């Protein structure tokens, strides 16, 4: 099979051990360009709008992709020459996760992320590119996971988008509210030949009211609060809870356990910095 001359970037993606084509890969190039492999493992990017250096990431559900920014290869692309770049990928593990409520009813649209409990930096496998949502049966297939003797932690959250808040004339900030307390599943994935199965139950939990004041007694109404379950192992954040003019706040969907409460201090136009304020059982 010959490469297509109409491609500015093309190549073959194959199994490291067997040489068989990887047929479910998506090659992502910076600035929104992407190409998918065909039945022969061949991919082709037909055009770019500006020549220059581009980083490449690869996503696959059957194989371990390339997601780490430091490991992404850089290619120089232009419209007047073709670059051929082949890749070999290792087989990954797959787990089918079903997310249900306390009545064992499926939860559609729950977001799943996965981290290795052996990673001190709590990096999600594949980052945001690998976050998946459950279908109308509450099922989500997570794949492309490196086999490991160390446990993985799969986190499930379910939220509703509320009306976007206008930040300025050019930008809207999408706000989400959790519908349930987050749930988790710890699992060891080390067999690339079998599909594992797991279930996560999301609970409604209860509201917990609190009061936040500065040392001088002034309500901390310029801050907000996040409640992290002690088991939380993700770079994403729990929902942010506002503090009112009297210093009162309400943590929603709390299930019994130990939590780390973090206060968010506004920084600049859109950022914030989190500081720990309490480690307690709720």
UniProtKB/TrEMBL annotation:
Question: What is the phylogenetic placement of the source species in the record?
Answer: unclassified sequences, metagenomes, ecological metagenomes
UniProt organism field: marine sediment metagenome
- The protein's name is Uncharacterized protein
């Amino acid at each position: 099979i010959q490469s297509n001359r109409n491609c500015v970037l093309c190549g073959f993606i194959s199994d490291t051990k067997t040489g068989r084509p990887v047929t479910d890969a998506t090659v992502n190039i910076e600035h929104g360009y992407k190409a998918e492999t065909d039945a022969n493992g061949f991919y082709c990017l037909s055009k770019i709008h500006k020549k220059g250096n581009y980083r490449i990431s690869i996503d696959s559900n059957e194989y371990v992709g390339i997601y780490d920014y430091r490991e992404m290869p850089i290619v120089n692309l232009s419209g007047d020459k073709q670059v051929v770049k082949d890749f070999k990928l290792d087989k990954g593990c797959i787990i089918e996760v079903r997310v249900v409520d306390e009545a064992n009813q499926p939860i559609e649209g729950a977001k799943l992320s996965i981290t290795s409990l052996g990673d001190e930096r709590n990096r999600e496998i594949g980052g945001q590119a690998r976050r998946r949502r459950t279908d109308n049966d509450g099922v989500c297939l997570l794949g492309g996971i490196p086999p490991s003797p160390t446990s993985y932690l799969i986190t499930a959250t379910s939220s509703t988008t509320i009306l976007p808040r206008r930040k300025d004339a050019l930008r809207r900030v999408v706000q989400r509210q959790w519908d349930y307390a987050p749930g988790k599943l710890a699992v060891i994935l080390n067999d690339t030949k079998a599909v594992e199965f797991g279930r996560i139950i999301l609970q409604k939990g209860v509201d917990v009211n609190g009061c936040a004041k500065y040392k001088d007694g002034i309500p901390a109404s310029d801050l907000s609060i996040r409640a992290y379950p002690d088991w939380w192992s993700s770079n994403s954040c729990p929902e942010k809870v506002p503090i009112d003019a009297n210093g009162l706040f309400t943590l929603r969907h709390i299930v019994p356990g130990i939590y780390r409460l973090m206060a968010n201090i506004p920084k600049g136009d859109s950022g914030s910095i989190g500081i720990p304020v309490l480690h307690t059982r709720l």
